[in-house]
């Protein structure tokens, strides 16, 4: 089957995103709103939970369960998909673009001083990493193989993001600010970085 050429969707052409978990009274899966730096809702990240998994979650811990998330704009156009299979130790998460082409794999690593993910391209070559930069697993840096800075995933608002908007819209929920160096606008690493904020939340904070 011929691989469809990847094109970066409009949703993924920004440099700053606020990812805010949506509070639910009954929680079988997670939903995250995507906001711009002014607090405007520009998309949604939604977990797709099959019926059998909902039943199992009533009796078993969800930490090892497989998951699938879609990243979509407000019109429902899917920009990327995040997939993880059954996991019993270290997570391995696959990232797909809007055409369902695999663009990267995130592999969880445990080190003495920090938690991290290595990011590989579809051929298995390490191209970047996401590492915790705070003891409470609240802030993460995204760096290339030569240690160049690609972006950050933070729970502390910086870079002109309006904290009051995010706090007012989504009080008491997990929120992350994702910032990407503008030179990576048309790079698959942009998509992987946004997906990384969800992976971080699922892996280290849920």
UniProtKB/TrEMBL annotation:
Q: What is the native source organism of this protein?
A: Flavobacterium endoglycinae
Q: Do you know which Pfam families this protein is assigned to?
A: Scramblase (PF03803)
- The UniProt entry's coiled-coil ranges are none
Q: Record's superkingdom?
A: Bacteria
> What name goes with this protein?
Scramblase
């Amino acid at each position: 089957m011929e691989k469809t050429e990847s094109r970066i969707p409009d949703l993924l052409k920004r440099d700053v995103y606020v990812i805010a978990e949506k509070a639910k009274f009954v929680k079988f899966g997670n939903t995250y709103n995507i906001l711009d730096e002014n607090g405007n809702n520009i998309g949604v990240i939604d977990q797709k939970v099959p019926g059998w998994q909902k039943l199992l979650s009533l009796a078993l811990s969800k930490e090892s369960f497989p998951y699938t998330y879609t990243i979509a704009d407000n019109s429902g156009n899917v920009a990327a998909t995040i997939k993880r299979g059954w996991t019993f130790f270290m997570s391995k998460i696959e990232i797909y673009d809007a055409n369902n082409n695999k663009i990267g794999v995130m592999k969880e690593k445990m080190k003495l001083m920090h938690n991290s993910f290595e990011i590989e391209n579809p051929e298995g070559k390490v191209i970047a990493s996401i590492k915790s930069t705070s003891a409470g697993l609240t802030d993460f840096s995204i760096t290339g193989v030569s240690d160049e800075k690609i972006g950050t995933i933070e729970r502390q608002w910086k870079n002109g993001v309006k904290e009051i908007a995010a706090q007012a819209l989504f009080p008491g929920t997990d929120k992350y600010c994702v910032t990407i160096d503008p030179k990576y606008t048309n790079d698959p690493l942009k998509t992987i970085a946004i997906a990384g904020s969800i992976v971080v939340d699922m892996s280290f904070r849920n």
